[in-house]
Amino acid sequence: xxxxxxxxTAAAIAGSVARGDADGASDIDxxxxxxxxxxxxxxxxxxxISRRHEGERLFFAVEQGLAFYGMFEGVKCDFSxxxxxxxxxxxxxxxxxxxxxxxxxxxxxxxREFLPIHGDAFIAELKRRTDTYPDGLALSIxxxxxxxxxxxxxxxxxxxxxxxxxxxxxxxTAVRRMLALCCARNRxxxxxxxxxxxxxxxxxxxxxxxxxxxxxxxxxxxDSSLADRYASLASDCWELxxxxxxxxxxxxxxxxxxxxxxxA
Length: 264
Prior knowledge:
- The protein is built from twelve helices and six strands.
- It is of the alpha+beta class.
- The chain has a six-stranded mixed beta sheet with strand order 3-4-5-2-1-6, with helices on both faces.
- A hairpin with a 2-residue loop joins strand 4 and strand 5.
């Protein structure tokens, strides 16, 4: 931070290092908050640091923040710097206004795991605000993700045409939506990056049986049972929604999923 010419008001380690389950392939995520907007000069300094350390700038906007990475002593380090007011607004968008934007939920998922290294009071307040998961937010997430790619699209447009890339894209979309449904059912913030899903599933109380292995199987096993396995897991996810306290009907989602269109 000294080389960038800024003084953070708060900072935290995030990700696997913060959780205590880092391994030899883990990177270090350093999140810093400042009490002002960033300047082009700071962005240029980050470029110079990145170039010296085999990295690059990933994002920069004066009012939103800066992200870059570099290699330090053989370890990839990711740096994120943003105004503290911005992250407070983001948290309020999700908690109070039930904003379902995936990037915002990914940020909150990270906040939940923060290990503070500076400005402990600010970090503690962020974590306190994200202790809650309102029913209205869960309902919004469920409604947004309840429609899954129809079975016939997987069978005919993907598998039937031997289009591996389309099949993978459709199933990845389905996996992400099923995870979002289960996270909302459990009032658990979801990191939409699809990292460490085995750990995420272990943290959820209510999931379909063998949830992680069945999700993984959709993306790895291309045998003749794929469409049936996909339909079975989709049905189990909808059953979880039906058993939830939220007033959501799965009738339309189920009908759309099984309806057949296109050439036979």
